[in-house]
Structures are given as C-alpha cells and as structure tokens.
C-alpha cells in the first residue's frame, strides 16, 4: 500500500482484504450495475487475480483494473496469457490519470510474471491501442444442424443445487479446450458467474459423455451452443440428439473444430471487441471466438 494521486491510496493484490473486496464490488455495481459479490457463493473470485486500485480515506474504491491468469490454446499451441477485467473509474475522479496508472501497474505486473500475451474485452478499443493492444475479430458459426447423432442420457444442472455446482466445478477444473483453434484452458470462475447472470441458460449434463453443454433456444427453431465442458467434445449431432431438439438453425459460439460439423463463419458485430497485446503473429489463423461463458 502506498500513497496515490490527490490523496488517494494505491493498493495492489488486495483481494484477501474483505473490506477492499467489498469496495471493488461496490465500484463495479455502481459503474456497470453488476453485483460481482455473487462470486462468493460460487467459490470466490479467481485466485490468480491481481487487482490494482485507488481507494479514498473512507475505503471506497475509486479506480481499479484486475489482471488474472488466462492460459490459452491458439492453433494447438499453449500460450501463457493473462486477462484484464474490472476496469473502472468513478465519474467524480475521471480525467486525473487514475486509469492510466492502474493500467500501467497491471501491465508491469503481467510483464514481470512473464505472460506471453494479455487480452481484454472492451467497447472502447481506442483506449487500449495506446497500451499496445490490437483488435482480433471474432466470429460465430451458424448453419443447418447435423442429424443422426447418438443420444446420451441427459440431466439438467442447476447452480442453486450445491451438488450440481460441485459437479460442474469439478468438470471445469479438468476440462479440455473446447477448440484447438482458440480457447481458454481455464476460466471456471467466469463460467460460473456468467451462468448465474443468464436466467435462460440451460446447463445439461450428457452423462455418458461426461460433458456439460451450455446452450439456449429462442423458441423460433434456433439453438445456440455457448460452451461445452468436458474431457472430450461430443459431436454436435450427438449433442442435439441428446438435448432432444431439432432446430432449424444452430449457432456455435466458438470454433467448431471438435464438433464434426462446419458452420458458416459470421463476423461478430457486437459492441465488445476482443483485444490482444503480444507478438504480431500471435493470433488464430482461422476464424474463432471466445466462448460467451468465458467472457470477462
């Protein structure tokens, strides 16, 4: 802990301080209207998290950004990467260089830890280009669904059920990458947190395949596959047969190279931009997407 700008206190690596953690929760709730304190019930925040923030004399978190380990597979190669999340500054303190200060502290931390790349999601890409980040376009994969798959016994999981939560946590700890083209190798905490924010999300365990499918259906004949958690990926035909759905169209929100199915790659036109800071040649050769359950 050390003195910061304009009488504020700069703090790093403070998640073991419950009052400071609550201050960060309050900041993110006030700025983004998201209550990240729900992570406590789901097992807590990512243990690799390294937050960097400014606090006032009353303990309120004024500005923050958090780095965390996010190992990736890119074109079949392991990449020791970090992610940045929880970046925010209270409106009353903007324009004072606080965000630049916490960003530089987080990037210095990532460099000191030897991370090969740093990634983030933002709707303000120009803010991060000055720090060496470049946008990587994402795609979704859509088309006519395959048929004739093998149906596995299936059971719906519920995060409110402690046994289901424990099972899903164990599967997330031992999961295989959902794609060799691009995928996070671990992102348990964000998967669980994102799932808790999505009331229409279905989490179905394909028991014989030991895999959980995160999916949605819109009631108009469309199915979206958001992620798959398992030690191996079932074919998409087997997934749809197991879920007992016959959609007119299926959209897979990650590269489907393990699904024995090819969809049309459709450029993502959403507001959030995926950005990477790292070697110029470090990016998937073919279209890819970060699974929505790993969004951070």
The CATH architecture designation of the largest domain is: 3-Layer(aba) Sandwich
Strand order of the largest sheet: 1-2-3-4-7-8-18-9
Shape: globular
Q: Describe the sheet with the most strands.
A: 8 strands, mixed
Mean pLDDT reading: 96
Helix/strand/pairing class, anyone? alpha+beta
Q: Percent range for helical residues?
A: 10-25%
Count up the domains: 2
Q: Could you give me the name of the CATH homologous superfamily of the largest domain? A: Gcn5-related N-acetyltransferase (GNAT)
Q: Compute the number of helices.
A: 6
CATH level 3 topology of the largest domain: Aminopeptidase
How far apart the termini lie comes to 26 Å
| H/E series | EEHEEEEEHEHEEEHEHEEEHEEE
Poorly predicted segments: none
Number of strands: 18
Q: Which CATH first-tier class of the largest domain would you pick?
A: Alpha Beta
- Measured by DSSP, the beta-strand proportion falls in 25-35%
Q: In angstroms, what is the radius of gyration?
A: 20 Å
Characterize the structure shown.
Residues 12-161 form the N-acetyltransferase domain. The longest helix has 15 residues, at 18-32. With 296 residues, the protein is an alpha+beta fold. The protein has 2 domains: 2-139 and 270-294, Gcn5-related N-acetyltransferase (GNAT) (Aminopeptidase); 142-265, Aminopeptidase, CATH 3.40.630. The protein is globular and about 65 Å long. The protein has helices at residues 18-32, 98-112, 125-129, 162-173, 188-196, 236-243; strands spanning 2-3, 9-12, 50-55, 61-69, 72-74, 77-79, 81-89, 117-122, 134-135, 139-143, 154-156, 182-184, 202-206, 211-217, 222-230, 249-252, 264-267, 273-277. It has 6 helices and 18 strands. An 8-stranded mixed beta sheet has the order 1-2-3-4-7-8-18-9.
């Amino acid at each position: 802990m050390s003195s910061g700008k304009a009488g504020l206190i700069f703090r790093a690596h403070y998640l073991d301080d419950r009052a400071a953690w609550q201050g960060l929760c309050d900041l993110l709730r006030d700025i983004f209207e998201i209550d990240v304190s729900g992570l406590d019930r789901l097992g807590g925040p990512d243990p690799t998290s390294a937050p960097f923030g400014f606090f006032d004399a009353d303990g309120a978190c004024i500005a923050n950004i958090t780095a965390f380990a996010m190992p990736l597979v890119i074109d079949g190669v392991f990449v020791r990467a970090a992610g940045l999340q929880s970046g925010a500054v209270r409106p009353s303190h903007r324009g004072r260089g606080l965000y630049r200060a916490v960003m530089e502290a987080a990037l210095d931390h990532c460099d000191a830890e030897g991370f090969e790349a740093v990634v983030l999601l933002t709707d303000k890409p120009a803010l991060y280009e000055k720090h060496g980040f470049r946008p990587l376009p994402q795609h979704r994969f859509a088309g006519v669904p395959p048929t004739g798959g093998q149906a596995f016994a299936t059971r719906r999981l519920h995060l409110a059920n402690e046994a289901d939560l424990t099972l899903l946590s164990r599967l997330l700890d031992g999961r295989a990458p959902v794609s060799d083209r691009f995928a996070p190798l671990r992102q348990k905490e964000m998967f669980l947190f994102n799932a808790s924010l999505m009331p229409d999300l279905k989490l179905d365990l394909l028991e014989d395949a030991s895999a959980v499918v995160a999916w949605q259906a819109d009631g108009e004949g469309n199915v979206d596959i958001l992620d798959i958690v398992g030690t191996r990926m079932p074919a998409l035909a087997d997934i749809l047969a197991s879920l007992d759905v016959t959609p007119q169209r299926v959209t897979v929100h990650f590269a489907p190279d393990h699904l024995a199915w090819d969809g049309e790659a459709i450029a993502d036109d959403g507001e959030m931009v995926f950005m990477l800071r790292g070697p110029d040649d470090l990016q998937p050769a073919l279209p890819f997407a970060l699974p929505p359950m790993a969004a951070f």
